[in-house]
Amino acid sequence: MSIQNKALRDPAWHERLFSTWLLVAVIMACLYVTEFKPWTLLDETSLRATRQFLASFFPPAHDVVFLKLIVVSTWQTIAVATAGVTLALIVAVPLALIATRTLSISRIGSGRVALVPKIIRNATRGVLIVLRSIPELVWGLLFVRAIGLGDTAGVLAIALTYCGMMGKVFLEIMESQDARSTDTLLINGASRGQAFLYATLPSCLPEMVSYTVFRWECAIRSSVILGFVGAGGLGQQMDLSMRMLAGGQVVTMLAAFVALVWVADVVSKQLRALLD
To answer: Taking a C-beta distance cutoff of 8 angstroms, is the pair 153, 226 a contact?
Structure first.
């Protein structure tokens, strides 16, 4: 082999080839376990059922009484998402403050966190892990069983799951910032609250607000999905219409849902643009 061919040869091609085959094997195993068979969609029985289902969508429901119901349900969906994210934010910020190492007074000088604060921080991080590990749909099912159908179950479900997510991200944002100004305040006798308000928060606020707005946008979608388990809003009305095989009502609500997500996306982008 010439010197030029040796220079063009990838010295790590064995590892790359092995990694590629390993990835293909994992994907094939996942497809086998999930019994992924997309060709069943082309079966005549499936095609007939699909045509009948799509035919029931037309004409879309557009009577005044139903449209008023859609407007009310859409507003409930927005209210559930907003209330859930607000509650999550109220709890997530204190939990992030407790769990972050940046605001630890005991590490100043020695660089090591004392045992008791370390235990508290690890316990708080564990709480955040538990909260974000359980999907909002599962929380919704639990709260519907506990307190009954309605918007309250949706608000609490979003609040718990998003509290874990937002707390984790806020924690990472705080610990990724330059901590020199925070350390300076702590060394000179400032409390953790003062160090947070005057040093950590100003540098972290744009990212925290941007992520909160993004989570609100995601909560709009989640609140619709939670409606299918009885947690109120547009999703619950859609579930009722699907049970009654009212395809015209379903397609109208799908259009309302698409419009709602589009508006939430536009508002979210505008708010994030103001922060840049």
So the answer is: yes
Per-residue buried b or exposed e for 90-109, using 16+ beta carbons within 10 Å of the residue's own CB: ebbbebbbbbbebbbbebee
Do 69 and 12 share a domain, yes or no?
A: no
pLDDT 10s per residue in the chain (276 long)?
454 555 556 666 677 788 888 899 999 888 888 887 777 777 777 778 778 777 777 787 778 888 888 888 888 888 888 999 999 999 998 888 888 877 766 666 555 666 777 788 888 888 889 988 888 888 888 888 888 877 888 889 999 999 999 999 988 888 887 777 777 777 777 777 777 777 777 888 888 888 888 888 888 888 888 888 877 777 888 878 877 777 788 888 888 888 888 887 787 777 767 766
pTM above 0.85, yes or no: no
Range of the domain at 169: 64-275
Has residue 47 been placed in a domain?
no
What distance in Å separates the CA atoms of residue 39 and residue 121, rounded to the nearest whole number?
A: 51
Is 56 contained in some domain?
no
Q: For tokens 């699909």, what's the residue?
A: 50
Position 23 in a domain = yes
111 and 178 in one domain? yes
Q: Is residue 116 part of a domain?
A: yes
How far apart CA 132 and CA 204 sit, in angstroms, is 22
Q: CA nearest 219: which of 100, 97, 73, 82?
A: 82
Pick from 276, 99, 92: nearest CA to 175: 99
> How many CB atoms are located within 10 Å of the residue 62 CB?
11
